Queue: 3 jobs
Job 1
Amino acid sequence: MEPIIRVEQLRKQYKNSKRPAVDGISFEVGRGEFFAFLGPNGAGKTTTISILTTTLSKSEGTVMIAGYDVEKEAAKVRRNVGIIFQNPSLDLDLTAEENIRLHVSIYGVYAYRPFYSMMPKEYKQRIEELAAIVGIHDNLFKKVKGFSGGMKRKLEIMRSLMHKPQILFLDEPTQGLDASARQSLWAYLQKIRKEENITIFLTTHYLEEAEEADRVCMITHGKVAVLGTPEEIKHKLLGDKSMLIDAGDRKALRAELEELQVSFTEEEQCFRVRFQDKTPQSLVARLQTPLSRMEVHQQTLEEAYLSLVQQSQNDESRKGAV
């Protein structure tokens, strides 16, 4: 199946810049995929997204969105994408429905009418359907200035879906929301993704949100540093998983680990044992020595990301020293 996003050797060089902001990156995103695009400030992340959403021109390369070229067929690309920006872009003095009515008229989906009652039946059905999904049905005709941060984000999601886009670009969608609101918002996003079969393209500084992605692309210094599933990336950047174990008879436990040819290091008050399976259950089941301690360290995407950033900084320091 043709990927819904295809980026080949994308390059962007700003005037008066010594090196490209984006330096020949390539990746593909499948239809219906949840794809996370991560990178530190200055990595080229914002530049890439701006090109993908037609708000910035590229210097070189090919970018196809939903089968359309971002530069030759920009209008068709925009009709197939929904964008939720980092900063809210709602008119607080309008009602939720008025914000949406203005948006769809700008997109050319429906001609503007001064009153909701004058809008076509299809518009009303779509707005009712989406309001029910995101949970703001009872607030459709209330002014946005009274909405919480979470409700505003839900309204932006709803607004971005009115023209039935194939791809939803989320740029820091939960920034400024508390933990409860973030969790609620993601529940609605996953529900929408399933019901509307939408591809999600996410950028976020909340790395735990990217843990649920099908695949993750991390970039540094304008280049793709690593691309794969969250588990693949964690293994590549952090190595094997590990657990801490100990026993009253440490000598016997050490001998048993050596006999089983398990990879381990002896720390001050325990053994750090590395494993590659999803869980350490099969390894623990083979141990005969009674354990007095067992702690499994769950690797996170945030740890992998920080490892990559540190590695990138070290590389830059070495270049500067040469």
Job 2
Amino acid sequence: MARDEAPAQRAEKKRGGLVGTLFKLPFTLMWIVIISIFCSVLIEWVGIYFDWFSQTGSDHAHQTMLSEMGYLDSQFTQSLLVSSPVEFATMIVDTCYEWLFAKSGIAGWVEQGAGAVGWAGTLKTYLQAAMFVTLMTLTRCVILVLTSPLFILAAIVGFTDGLVSRDLRRFGAGRESAFIYHHAKRMVTPIFLTGWLIYLSLPFSIHPNLFLLPCALLFGLMIAIATASFKKYL
């Protein structure tokens, strides 16, 4: 009786773990966005303080924000998720700006403080840079949402390729490696989430394809390795 219950308990634990992971995923992504905004603002402030950028004050953050919006306008004119990606992104960014900065009075205070000197001028510069960096990060969030089918496609291709490799190993009497399977399985989620975190936190403008395509390729590769190295007999 105990032998019959053990597999059932393991299967129930796996189902519970999968459901829990899917339930926590939106909250995890939300925390990643918040952490990315915090890291981006901190990097920008440190760069302004130590004069890392060629532009002075908040000009670097402003230019980076314009570059990211330019990628969105020119490269993401079509999407599988929404009919008009540019209008969708504009609505999201404008709504966030309205609630975060306009209604809170930060944007009005920064505009009224234009030309201020001393600590007031310094505070205005840092707040303005934080506003630009936040809007830039939100623009990148929209880009990630619009390119999410790329990661889904990479996962499907990796899973299919892994199943084929597993069947070849199964019928060809290939050796199993639990070490490879468990480590590849553990790397799938960190690669996905870490890729988001790094991309959202970069303090300079980068074309999305230069970062997202390698991340999607690595994501699909880990899924393929984990699927291919899964045990031959259940």
Job 3
Amino acid sequence: MLFSLINKYISINPKNDILSGLTVALALVPEAVAFALLAGVSPLVGLYAAFTIGLVTSIIGGRPGMISGATGAIAVVIGTLVAVHGVEYLFAAVVLTGVFQIIFGVLKLGKFIRLVPHPVFLGFVNGIAMVIFIGQVKQFKVDGTWITGEPLMIMLAIIVATMAIIQFLPRFTKAIPEILVAVIVGSLAVIWLGLDTRTVGDIASIKGGFPAFHIPDVAFNLDTLKIIFPYALTMALVGLIESLLTLNLIDDLTETTGQPNRESIGQGAANLVTGLFGGMGGCAMVGQSIINVKSGGRGRLSGIVASVALLLFILYLSEYIEMIPIAVLIGVMMMVVIGTFEWCTIRLFGKVPTLDIITGISVAAITILTDNLALAVIIGVILSALSFAWESASKIHYEKEQNENADNVYKIYGTLFFASKEHFQELFNPKEDTDNVYIDFANARALDHSAIQAIDKLAERYKRIGKTLHIQHLSAECRLLLKTAKNLVEVNVLEDPTYHVADDKLA
């Protein structure tokens, strides 16, 4: 029974999880080093973050199979903090980031990530794919100069060979993850052939000790809080948005469902721990998560193995890991780009609303240009909301008929809210209407206070010329607002059967 419980919680396929975890660990090294350098901290600060964040989120997070660690999104946020105030303030900010994210999860706010519109999600995924691609292109520069000649040809040959192994090996066998095979074969081939190409060791040394517990060396006062608070809040938002959107992506790839609130708590706990063990903070990693899933990693064991293997690399195997050619890892990440990019979006042109296309492109462009995923997603959500409001506003209309007294009856269809209130007013001409006018909301909905004001304004237009407006089938909530709102004209609301709004108790 104990084995069954452990098997269910940690892994349903230990072999695949172990092999995929080792593959991910190899890919984590250059990424963590690169992001640390981008943030202006020691490479070990990035590697320690990859270890601690990856381990904690794999154990207690809400998305088995998802990989977390040091990321470029976080590195961009913290660069100024490190440059101006030093690395100790960074550690303090990371701890506070963890606290914010735990609160977010405890309040069960993670569920709202499900409300992110699909065009925004597509823009996020495509933007991330392009960011990864641009990151690989930058590897063709050394000290600001583009690689040319024979070194360039060697790099391109290694990249193509690596991509070919990943693409075609699964046709012959799936016993071993193709990415792991590509890394090992590519590295051994370069060493055996004596090819002169850049390796992980050329970027930085990854040798170090076990991360030590370390309380940030800062003054615990209000001044410190004023410094770290904006950075911590930004990191918390950026980290959660990237993590929860990555969770959705892995959900789609694996056809399973993660737990956003639990993942928020897991990310918070991970950042809190990494801040106390000399890490730079981080969140879910799209590229590494896809590598893990594509390599067969599904359980928590894959992330645990990746984190522990990374620590072993730091402690004992650094000289061997530093021999891995950069070109091999570029080849791996290029295949990640191909697998991440939603190619179906190209076929959507002309088939979906133009505003949806604009939203997706905007999110991708902002992601690429700013590396600020939170900003990109927030703007995308706003654009989608405006698009929805515009479309809904234009759909409100009526069907006109007369009752037995020859009074005009308008049956309203659509949604009355802030965006459609002006169009609603334009539908009516009180001067040409009957003395008694009936507006039937049985097939419509009044959503907000702007809708109530629109109804009152229309009633006032009829009242000025001595005519009466009667409202039918308005919801109980709207009738209450009409009866209790101050300084609003009186509207004759006809009594109708009670229509309840479905809520959690009725559902």
